[in-house]
Amino acid sequence: MKKYLILGLSAAIGLASCKNDKQETTKLKDGKWHAEFNAKDGSIPFSFEVEKGNSDSLAVVTLINGAERVPLEGITYRGDSVFIPIRAYDTELRGQIKGDTITGLFSRLFSENDKGVEFRAVYGDTPRFSTEGTSADSLDGKWDIQFITETETKNNVGIFSQKDGILTGSILTNSGDFRYLEGVSDKNGFRLSAFAGLSPYLIQGKFIDKDNFEGEFITARGSQKIKGTRNANARLADPYGLTQLKKGYNSIDLKLKDLKGNEVSLTDPKFKDKVVIISVLGSWCPNCLDEAEFLAPWYKENKDRGVEIVGLAFERKDDPEYVQKVLSNLVNKYGITYDVLFGGKIADSEKVLAALDGGLKSYPTTIFIDKKGVVRKIHTGFNGPATGLFYDEFKADFNKLVDELLAEK
What we know:
By secondary structure, this protein is an alpha+beta fold. Helices cover 18% and strands 41% of the residues. The protein is built from five helices and 25 strands. Strand 14 (181-186) and strand 15 (189-194) form a beta hairpin. It is globular and about 65 Å long.
């Protein structure tokens, strides 16, 4: 039944667009909007704000998650329909505007078979979550958090801040973090959600006692159980110990094309006697974007010290036009001036990075190579600015390692 509802909603948006092409265009109201995704196992709330600017083409929709602001540009209207592209992830919000309400779909444009996720937005500065009473327990601090399925249990780390019932924070995994979470705590437990343009998700739970909780992690496609235990010393496995080279290997051999079609090899003169950092990424990966946001300005400040960065991208498709579009968006958004090479589709990483024992384990993965071309360390995953002190720790370790490699003769 839900399949036909979604198809019907898509058709309705399309028909409304055609029908109203010659009618007066309906526009989004300036100000804040409260929205909810109709996920399989529950509603996932998110918030955004609209600023029209001087023209429709300059209108900006900003997604809000705690301290994070994600501006979306290029909004278009057709009759009573609005189309909001999310270029960073090749996704889109589209819907019909009726007064103070938008009803529509969130679609992954990169997937031909994506049926979309229904959402409904209402104009007004409505809280992300409604609350009832106050909580006797607090989520503030660090937690060991288990994500549990029928086949495995993964150990992650939560770091949260709670003030006056408002929660913010993130969850760290060995492949990256959940970025900026925002929510509430009340007598019914706690709830946090996030939507930055790729995958909406909701985390909710109830306290067993002040140091333990049980709950769920809910996405648009399903849910899984989680358990949390307070631990001031909670940490993940050492990110430098998760990915290794195969026995008999001490280097990485790359010869790939950049976005201009030029072939780039690590044996090129520009890399000779320099420290080289390879950032294995995908334009579709939120944590990769966080790393790019860190690396781009860092490279501009440090390239004259004898260090080079190479972005090695693996994408959902290998169609040249698609690759050029998504990687150019990435380069332009973050002002990347180092080489970005295309390695192929995601599945091609095993062939391109054949020297890695067990293959690539995470996006992003960062490979540090010394002046002699020897791989010295490999960092799996990336915990970005949403993780606070963990991000500060990463930056300190990163700079210390590069300084040590640059000091070598």
